[in-house]
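Worked example

This section walks through a single chain of length 515. The input is the sequence exactly as stored; nothing has been trimmed or padded.
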Amino acid sequence: MSDPSPATPAAPATPATFTLDSAFGVGAVHPRLYGSFVEHMGRCVYTGLYEPGHPAADAAGLRQDVLTLIRELGVSTVRYPGGNFVSGYRWEDSVGPREERPVRLDLAWRSTETNEFGLGEFMDFCGKTGVEPMMAVNLGTRGVEEALHLLEYANHTAGTELSDRRIAHGAKEPYGIRMWCLGNEMDGPWQTGHKTAEEYGRLAAETARAMRMIEPGLELVACGSSSSSMPTFASWESTVLQHTYDLVDHISLHAYYEEHDGDRDSFLASAVDMESFIEAVVATCDHVGARLKSKKKINLSFDEWNVWYQARYHAATPPDWDKAPRLLEDSYSVTDAVVFGSLLIALLRHADRVTAASLAQLVNVIAPIMTEPGGPAWRQTTFYPFAQASRYGRGRVLRVEVDSPTYTTAKFGEVPLLHATAVTDDETGAVTVFAVNRSQTTALPLEIDLRGVGARTLAEHLVLADTDPEARNTLDDPDRVTPRPATGTTVTGAVLRAGLEPLSWNMIRLERPST
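Given that input, the structure is written out below as tokens.
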């Protein structure tokens, strides 16, 4: 368990402050903001979600201990089946009797795919966890025809060869998948079937147009840049949207963050980059819309984001066509959890345009949930900020303009110590503040002016912090880092005062006074 009474260094004399006013909002939080991602990669599926013979497995082979944690995490959507994997995905391999499914090489992760867990099993998983499926089509090695076949198999009621094939496979009712990704990271040279923006834009447009001939009401996501550091960033989005603007609803963003060369101060400010990335893509989308004289707004699907120590992955020996090898099983410290929480805050601060997001990934692979084959499942440190945000970050994001002491970073210059957002539930009147103190050594006093939201009482202030910045949850000590009540937080008149511990994630809930 976390140390219940960590030593608190002396606080700076100047508090961080902001004002909340219910009249000044950013936008409604779309439930899809709390999505995640399941890829056929490493042990995300096999011995993660799916492990027949495990003591906790149900008749379908799904681990009930893992499903319980997924429900607790509060995931709303799950993107599937990739990721890089989708660019070699043959959906036909993943349906029908298991004993007849072919075993294939997965070029993306140098692994062997058995197809034991396929589309039907994924939809069963979605039903049991109450998540919405977000399906990706292969536009790397395949194209329009295969996407149409998958859509018809999945969503058409009955009476055609493909829909009747689904029924014969045991799914009488159509899957009703509404949200579809048109490929994955097609700008990346690592992608099987990598394309130029012009090539992909044309293919995505034709695929979208044809899919809408079957179901006009689908929500479609075009591939944006795989990171803001790509040399084609912004020009890629501009070209792709020139082809697809009237045919898609979202464009994707992907971003991962890690500490480089011991520069923890810059790592703690990673959300500065994420917010800049979001704002640049919004500007590009709106520029294309203006050029096309369109009143439509393209929203953003930030469908891969996380802390990921990519340098460790690239330094490791690649798998030799193993089945479900241990890949990207990063163990997250409390420092990682604070950065993770800050990334969540960045997404919420742009909820007016970021209407879908997918934490990559869900189990074992850079994930908030870990498992051992035949053994237990446990929560990583990053589990807690996500679960709290998903539970209490529903409603409408309020505008938060922080006045905070700053610190100097090598990568981003002067950065506020405080990163924060607030979400109000207009029905219940509850207001939840999510806040991060980026200082590694110093507590940060916080003052929030509540006059604009009316009288409020403190319901709860939970903090995720530890005297050891490297503290983490492991198989041997799964509850080393957990949220605990903060002390000293008060609401006096219309001002909330709190002390934010160094290197901490904070969730502060306010409620209307009982009458």
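What to look for: The chain has a mean pLDDT of 96.
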